[in-house]
Design a protein that fits this description.
single chain
């Protein structure tokens, strides 16, 4: 299990790319995901393009619509950390 360092900057664009990748992998269009999640098509576009980050409620709704773990999508927004040389 990965550990997070809360002081890291969150990359909303990376989270958006993870949402887009999961949507495509599920074979869903934006309209289909919007219908399944209750999140508007416009909002999904904004998220996928990294224009804003999802709230917890929206991320949960999207993850249900995709059938994936929302935490996995959220984790994609944290930059990878290099292993320490200790």
């Amino acid at each position: 299990m990965e550990s997070f360092q809360p002081a890291q900057a969150y990359d909303v664009a990376a989270c958006g790319r993870a949402i887009a990748k999961a949507r495509v992998a599920a074979g869903l269009t934006l309209d289909e995901l919007a219908a399944r999640s209750g999140v508007s098509r416009r909002h999904l576009i904004d998220l996928e393009h990294g224009n804003n980050g999802p709230s917890t409620r929206v991320l949960y709704a999207i993850s249900l619509g995709l059938g994936v773990d929302g935490a996995d999508l959220f984790r994609q927004g944290f930059p990878a950390t290099a292993p320490s040389a200790a």
